[in-house]
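[Q] Does anyone have a clean structure-token version of this?
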Amino acid sequence: MPHIPSDTAQDFAERLFVANGVSSDDASVVAKHLVESNLAGHDSHGVMRIPQYLGAIETKQLEINSQPKVLSQFASGATIDGQRCFGQVACVTGMSLAVQLAKETGIAAVTMKNSYHTGRIGAYAEQAAESGMFGIVMCNAGGGGQSVAPFGGRRRRLATNPISMAAPHQQGFPVLLDMATSVAPEGKVRLRKLQGDEVPAGWIMDAEGKPSTDPNDFYADPPGAIFPLGGEVGHKGFGLAVMIEILAGALSGGGVCTEDEVLPQDNVLMIAIDVDRYAGLGPFQHHVTELVQYIQSTPAAPGFDQVLAPGEMEFQARQKRATVGIELDDETWQELSRLADRAGVDFLTA
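[A] Here you go.
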């Protein structure tokens, strides 16, 4: 599999988007987001998404001439309509507004509905943390993208409904939670399929509800489903997914899962908390550092080299991949080559 320097990959992604009619500003935001997802070790939300996005432009699922629109704004929040634009553009706009309002009121919540795929939502929680805020982000797919079975069921009824939180930290990276409420996001199942690998046991079930390690069972007709997070206590991941469905989908007005077949449209709740208004930024970060150091003072369990703080895995991945480059699977490489040739864009050099 080829390894590509991150700046080369970002430049290529920008040029390819622009060649397909995307504005240079939006192309920059989306390309940066995708490549930074690769750098953070989340390849399922990286440049492998480019073919999906370009296909959505062709089918008008993604409206490249649209921009997010603020529908209402009040002292501690706002509502935004993404108008089917890039989810990355809508979420950067929404979290920027949440941070701005939180500086005035201490805490702010912004809902965003009706955008295309938002990508890695951890990026927007990190965006808040970089501004000295505690960031909380959660997302549903407006009733589309159903891929997860409820606990005790075997038919798809929910999307993967991710949640992210990030706290500003003095040690070079925010303390970050970034997770799907399913055992794995759909993109990681897709990545295993593209790589020709099995998925780990406990990720998916086939159409009969039997556990499977073959990603093709998930995409079969009839399809399988992803398990909710938690295994034998999957009611916990399932319950969290339902609450995110309500907070992101119902609160935004963007919609929730029903029997109706609809195209995925991401709805997001973004919360920014100005920690300086509460404990003070310095004392807050001191407590966070104390907590991380105490957690990591435990001896490592058998099979582990060290205890990583939440967000440290992404930090280490960025450090490594900034040097060795990001890795692309062969199928994604070939598809990007085809798309570049069609658009008349110079392709990557491995």
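[Q] Thanks! Anything notable?
[A] Residues 136 and 165 are 4 Å apart (CA to CA).
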